[in-house]
Specification:
about 150 residues, alpha+beta, three-stranded antiparallel sheet, elongated, 5 helices
Amino acid sequence: MSYIEKNLMDGEQIVYEARQHWIIYWMPALLLVVAIAQFAIPFDLLVQAIIALVLAIIAGIWALNIYGGRKYILTSKRLILKRGIVRRDSLDLILRRCEGVSIRQSIIGRMLDYGTVVVSTGEVSNSFERIQNPVKFSSQINQQIAQQTKIQ
């Protein structure tokens, strides 16, 4: 059972889980390509292997840091952001307090279908960056907000 499932309120269900887009890993992937490409240069094989290993370790740590154990969960009552692998940070937004949802997408973001979803709760705005299919995530949030206002 996951952290999110353990901490659901009574009667609360998971409605949607947003994922980060694969684009977040482009720099670590590029570093791995450099690690492999450097074997094309004639040089001492042992030195190249050490360089490739160091670059691969750096790329792995970098990718793990970028991912950071992030989960974006929409439930029937809350929007939850959980991040952290060793240390955990969590943000819970009660849907009935949410006032607006907006999407920010660059041209590349529109082509590759990722963007930032911004949820405002009064004076505070919370950003969920590089979300895969942000339009669907936004519409799911709006649908749950509309259901919360019907309940009240």
